[in-house]
Amino acid sequence: MVFNEIQPAALIPNPDNGPYELDLHTLAFPAAWREAVLDLYKFGKSDAAQAKIEEVPIRALNSLIRTVAPDLVTVDANASFDATQPWLYSRTNYPSRILGRMVHAWLRSLQPTAEGFQRFRETARVLDVDSLCWQSDTVDLLEHELSPGGTCVPASRLYRVLPEILADRITAQPAYEFCGEHVRFHRVAVDARANGAELMSWPPLKHTTKVTDKDARNRYGSHRDWRYSAVISISLRTVPFSPIPRIYLSTRIRRWVAGQVSMSGTQRVSAYLLTKEPFIEDGQQPGRFAVAQFAWNPRTRQIEWVQGGPEGMLARVGAIDNLPAADVFAKEPDTWIDERDGIQGAASYHTMMGWHGVGAGLMPAERRRLTEWAAAALEPQLIPAPVLARSKVKQNPTKLLTPKVSVPKKDATDEEIEQAVATNRLIDLDNSVRRREYAALALDSRDLTAVLLYQSSHMRNQLIRAAEASLGLADYREAVGPDVWSWNAPDLRVRIHARELGALGAPLGNSAQAPRKGQEHIDAIGHRRSAVSAYLRDLAAELGEATVITFVELDGRDKFKPRTTDPKFAVRLGCADAGMVSQFFTPGNPNDPDDDSEFRVAAAWADGLRQLGMRLVPEHTVGAKIPEGLNQLAFWIVKRQATGETNRPQFTPVAVLIRPGRKCILGRTPEMTEWVPYPQLLIALTGQVRPQDLSTADQQTKAVAAFVQNTIYTMRGTPTLVVTHAQNTRNRWPWLTNSGLIADRIKLGNGPAQRIRLFGSNLYIARIATNDRDETPQWWAPKNDESGGISKGLWKLTNIDKNSHVFYSTSDKSGTHTLSVEATKLTHRINAKGNEEIRPDKNAWNPELLEITMIGFSDAVEAEDWAMFLHQQRFAEDYRDALALPLIQHVAELTSQYGLPHDDEPDDSPKTQLDQVESPPLARLQ
Questions:
Q1: Does residue 866 contact residue 626 with C-beta atoms inside 8 Å?
Q2: What's the pLDDT score for residue 300?
Q3: Which are the contacts of 802, defined by CB distance < 8 A and separation ≥ 6?
Q4: Number of helices (H) and strands (E), helices first, in the chain?
Q5: Which of 800 and 239 is assigned the larger pLDDT?
Q6: How far apart are CA 864 and CA 666, in angstroms?
Q7: How far is Cα 746 from Cα 752, in angstroms, rounded to an integer?
Q8: What 3-state class would DSSP assign to 467?
Q9: Secondary element (H or E) of residue 830
Q10: Which of 70, 174, 241, 402 has the fewest CB atoms below 10 angstroms from its CB?
Q11: How far is residue 501's CA from residue 65's CA, in Å, rounded to a whole number?
Q12: C-alpha span between 159 and 190 (Å, rounded)
């Protein structure tokens, strides 16, 4: 359905309302503490380590407070030691002696060894911790400045304080109600790094499923209960060039572990605990859920509360005995849901723990009702943000492939249905010929010679069929197995050499023990890497021809526990050493009626072609407003901390280029002297380790600035659109922050802001921001009084921001997602047939709101045309659904698959939302 406006789940200050102020208690670390605490933290560390320490991390103390004093609000991740920058906020005068005990425990944690004990005692005596006291402060909850670019810059403390105050107001109102059913929300203590506040429904909702598997029936019985809660997150945000702050209300589902927690290595699991009595003696009765984390301790070989060992902070403040035993809680966390030992609680589920009977997310109609219920509590100080209006520029790109005709269903004759199916067969054939033409261009007269390493003949045959159908090869067969399949079409020769994966896909390490994280893991990767490389080189010599890509049927990461046994990265490294890109797919089950391996293998084949540089670049319909011969240039940083899977850091800036007239997408890194074909870029990124001269933030910022400047310089004289990604790049290109952007200027590194035209008269820049960390709001298309829909389009700000250069892009619902936009999970609804219905078992899919900020344009009209160009670049026809990013940025993002061994370790930090389904590189779930 086409809508002309959408409503963001955002609030703005009411211009007709007066100041919004509140009296609070605040506490700051005295400035005189700074040097003493820094000296304590540095004690015993090497000179090199001490030189890097500029601040004292306070994360451990914040985590302790989150567990034992959840009603306190922490605002800093590092100790500021500045009386003008309070660290703690509270509505009440929390007992100072209790705070003193927690600060003592934190100071001791900075020097936990026996050697550091004397230094701790000396420091504690000098600081006089017991002298800490609360101060009264009147806080302006809308305090802000304007950046040089005209963007609202709220006072830093408000990112934590304002959402907390608003969350209290939402909790105080009557319960959410729909169809006569009620859902009540409670406050949750959040991490200081989250820069927001959270509410969670409690008691949890329940969904019961039938157990069909025989082994599972023996374990759980005929039915199994799954618990889940709704979550409302509140965050303070800004929009580039807008003087108005925003409050975003994000709603989602948190699923709880049913039965024993499936621990993965040293992964932390969050426990949400609501207690009638404080965990710490003489503490105040908490009004919020406390959050504690437990994990497997490889040293003691037990599940323990983080900071909960004999020398941990929880023990030092006397809280450990009041918490449930961590190992018992991990075995049966759901027994605390209805209260046990005076505590209600549950363990947060993560997708790596296996299947869950409740799906992620909420559909737009229910999201709208829940958001509007929460927003009503915040009037009159805050009101809904204005709607976003649909752009009137033509929305859809030109089709490169012929669309299929619809197959009639209702009241259609067999002849009509057969005719439509026959027409679609011809369309498929015509489209496959066009794809083959694009593949031949990307390979630049080379043969497409692939290696397939398979585990089952079922999946091997699936890939062969996918290759033949994708490129229209059925009439050109030369060989049909069992070891080689080949086709000789007029414009492209294709050969697939199939071999069993065998030991190359076995878990890393030996059968007796998995490799330990660190050097042992690195060595195991190296051994498998060498074995894969040698095998592929020997195979190429045996075949007498060069192979360009390897397709690998490999079990998913959930099959390799612990994670250090997963061979995927080692296999990718080995393929790269042999000069080949690689594409993986997981096994299927031909006996499973729900087996989707045919689709997955077809997608893997298509992804493989893209890695070889083949792209169906969307042809825009904006007309002459976009110049002929436009270069699309995207930057991306492939980065990994030393604490990652291999303990080896990486930091590699990457540029990717779509240049008119070139047959293949191009790429480069700072070490390259020229643009290279995309497959060559991927191979070069595999296994890189960050050099020592890029170990500091300043060094990395300067390196990015030099790389961007040199790359843009090569584009001088030709029209070029530079596409950047806010969340990926801004920490090393600070100009990309909301407050850093200026409409007609660019700033590289720590240098001055300069007019964009100094870098080229035809240079334009777009900054993309995604919904990561709730940085763009959720949304719905308003339908009647309380429903919401989904609508594809490019959208513009209205009212005071109507001439903005900021736009928003949305996609349509996924082609495989059939759940009604009216579906509910929190309460029943009355469906179209008049029956009660609730669908907690289904994943709810909502396209995210992609923010596009255009830089270097004369006016909003010109900026809108170029934003539409980027919006259309999300709809590449070799993908089934819309991309999460414009094509050029999507291709740049994919380089991380070669630079990094795995996604970052999952945890319950504010960087991730753990109850989300793993998102494809298409429009993401919300």
A1: yes
A2: 86
A3: 796, 860
A4: 21, 42
A5: 239
A6: 27
A7: 8
A8: helix
A9: strand 829-830
A10: 174
A11: 51
A12: 13
Instruction: Render the burial of 709-739: b for 16+ CB within 10 Å, e for the rest.
Output: eebbebbeeebbbbbbbbebbbbbbebbbbb
**Contact (Cβ atoms closer than 8 angstroms) between residue 168 and residue 187:** yes
Question: What's the rounded mean pLDDT across residues 314-336?
Answer: 90
Residue 202 CB coordination number (10 Å) = 20
β-strand 829-830 against 836-837: which pairing, if any?
antiparallel
Query: What is the Cα–Cα distance from 863 to 854, expressed in whole angstroms?
Result: 6
**DSSP annotation of 256:** B
User: Is the bond preceding 13 in cis, omega lying within 30 degrees of 0?
Assistant: no
Whether the upstream peptide bond of residue 380 has omega within 30° of 0, thus cis, is yes
Enter the tokens of residue 475.
Answer: 């009439």
Cβ distance 650 to 639 under 8 Å?
A: yes
8-state DSSP, 187: E
Reduced to 3 states, what is the DSSP secondary structure of residue 233?
strand
Residue 660 · residue 748 · CB < 8 Å: no
3-class secondary structure per residue, 322-340: HCCCHHHHHHCHHHHCCCE
**Are the C-beta atoms of 741 and 149 separated by less than 8 Å?**
yes
Q: Are 120 and 108 in contact (CB under 8 A)?
A: yes
Q: Rounded CA gap, 347 and 334, in Å?
A: 8
HEC-encoded secondary structure of 373-403: HHHHCCCCCEEECCCEEECCCCCCCECCCCC
With beta carbons less than 8 A apart as the criterion, state whether 277 and 342 touch: yes
Sign, CA torsion 557/563/566/572: positive
Residue with tokens 């941990």: 312
Q: Is the pLDDT of residue 415 over 70?
A: yes
Q: For position 650, what pLDDT does the model report?
A: 85
pTM of the full predicted structure?
0.91
Beta-sheet strands, E only, within 845-911: 850-855
Q: Quick one: residue 863, left, alpha or beta (phi over 0 = left, psi -120 to 50 = alpha)?
A: alpha
Give me the torsion for CA of 384, 390, 391, 394, rounded to 10°: 170
d(CA 346, CA 257): 7
Q: Average pLDDT, stretch 611-630?
A: 91
User: For 340-350, what is each residue's pLDDT tens digit?
Assistant: 989 999 999 99
666-668 and 720-725: which strand pairing? unpaired
Q: Phi then psi for 843, rounded to 5 degrees? A: -75, 130
Cis status of the peptide bond prior to 649, with omega within 30 of 0? no
Q: Is the Cβ–Cβ distance between 919 and 925 less than 8 Å?
A: yes
Rg of the chain taking only CA atoms, in angstroms? 29
Coil, helix or strand at residue 423: helix
For residue 463, the one-letter residue type is L
Tokens at 163, concatenated: 């959402």
* CA distance between the termini of the chain: 20
**Beta-carbon count within 10 A of 493 CB:** 18
Q: Which of 402-406, 658-662, 737-741 ranks highest by mean pLDDT?
A: 737-741
How many CA atoms does the CB half-sphere of 104 hold within 13 Å?
A: 18
Using 50, 70 and 90 to split pLDDT, how confident is the model at 749?
Answer: very high
For CA atoms 733, 734, 739, 744, give the dihedral sign: negative
Rounded Cα gap, residues 333 and 428, in angstroms: 52
In one-letter notation, the amino acid at residue 109 is S
| 916 pLDDT above the threshold of 80 | no
* Amino acid (1-letter code) at residue 616: L
Classify the C-alpha dihedral 34-35-40-45 as positive or negative.
positive
Residue 427: other Cβ atoms inside 10 A: 15
User: 84: exposed, middle or buried (C-beta count within 10 Å: 0-12, 13-18, 19+)?
Assistant: exposed
Q: Which residue has the tokens 């809904």?
A: 384
| 3-class DSSP assignment, residue 637 | strand
CA-to-CA distance for 430 and 439, rounded, in angstroms?
A: 15
Residue with tokens 């940083």: 637
Q: What is the enclosing helix (H) or strand (E) of 201? A: strand 197-201
Token look-up 């991306």 returns 636
Please state the three-class secondary structure of 731-792 as a single string: CCCHHHCCCCCECCEEECCCCCEEEHHHHCCCEEEEEEECCHHHCCCCEEEEECCCEEECCC
